[in-house]
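hiii, so i know i said id send this last week but things got crazy w the move. better late than never?? heres the sequnce for the chain we talked about at the cafe, plus the structure i predicted for it. fair warning i was half asleep when i ran it
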Amino acid sequence: MSKAKQSEGHHEELMAGFLDQLRLVFESSEQPMYLYLDDTHKACNQKLASLLGYGTPQEWARVEEFSDLVAKESAKDLVSAYQDAMDRKIGSTIEVTWRTKSGGTVDTTVILVPVAYKEHLFALHFISPRA
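okay and structure toks below
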């Protein structure tokens, strides 16, 4: 088996295990939220899927390019906050405009925090729509 396939399988196991651990929060949070390991390995709750026009969290997670989910003007701030979380282990609050499935946008405030599971860093995002 190639290293890429081994890594892919390992990341899928990490996501499944961590999501199982976070299930209570994901299913009962009043906020839209998502967990991010990389562009391929991400998961959201139903509230975020619905906010962005997706029928299910799985449909949202199948979007391959994360840049298809975030408005261009917000991408730099989101990447910077993610890098701070991964490199410096700090949380942040930023404004993010998301792209909906239908091509519209949703303005939000995002709380992004680093979290660890089995020696791997993830970014956990809590999202609040702005009026």
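btw Residues 8 and 41 are 9 Å apart (CA to CA). thought thatd interest u
miss u guys!!
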